[in-house]
Amino acid sequence: MAIDSATVTPRSLGYRMPAEWEAHTATWLAWPHNAADWPGRFHPIPWVYCDIVRHLSRVEDVHLLVEDAVAEQRVRGMLARTGAQLDRVHFHQWPTNRVWLRDSGPIFITKASPQESRVAITNWRFNAWAKYDDWQLDDQLPLKAAELLRLPNWTPQFPLDDAAMAHRVVLEGGSIDVNGKGTLITTEECLLSEVQQRNAGLSREDLERVFHDYLGVDQVLWMNRGVAGDDTHGHVDDITRFVGPVTIVTVTEPNPADDNHLPLAENLERLRAARDPAGRPFTIVELPMPSPVVFQGQRLPASYANFYIANGLVLVPTFNDANDRKALNLLADLFPGRQVVGIHCGDLIWGLGTLHCMTQQQPAGA
Description:
The chain is an alpha/beta fold. The protein has ten helices and 21 strands. It has a single domain (2-363), classed as L-arginine/glycine Amidinotransferase, Chain A, CATH 3.75.10.10.
């Protein structure tokens, strides 16, 4: 059921975007099929996905998008060989342009109400990071999910009070992170820059209003820039993440000669100066970066911050690096009730994304 955004917003009905660590019904994934996204290095990618689905299917359902019936049969066989729990994997033959469902998939919102649907979907416009021409299939995914799950859905637009001027707002899930309590983190590089510009004409204040109306956000923490090699132009899920209502992990780079050193140091300063709506400081935990990952002369956006939180589980990208162990131990301390598992992403990162980029959580609810 699509709802008219001009007359009622999710915020007005009590909806909010929940934190990733809140209970899930499922994780959404799209099976890799476009070899051009990993040129010359595609062969191992489906097997990396098998390992991820194997872990996730132990703790929650998995909605898996495949290109067609032939692909579904092939994928079923691969998952069976690697020990995934196929009774928890739900296949949907929905063609996609790419597999980064964090950005193209539905962004779910929830509310506490036993009388009506507690889960809904926000259907933001996806335009392939304002960089690529092929995005039309991916842009359809939130609405398809809403129809499949029979959930209310909103198409965020701005401005709300002028139908003639309103346009559908572009937003990728990887550009934001929330604590489920009304605070959102994002970057100026991604949402306010004229490079790969998502929403021309929308100011910082305009975007904060959109987040308030559609995601139930009261406070936005603006970081500056993302990591080197990020073709999304500054996604926050590579640098700074909530791991609790008042606890934030942020990556830092001590080497002053590294391109990431100064931008990450500035982000750290902003976080240390930030206060929650009650005026209290956040707890800031520094997460290391792996040594630079370079392939064919290209710096890749390898970061431990691109972890994914599932039910009783945290999947963390690793890179055969000395800092892998440090990152895993640090995150294990922050998630004492969850199993922290490293997934080798040395091949996956050639596609310019890893575990958080490929996943989208569906929160629990009726």
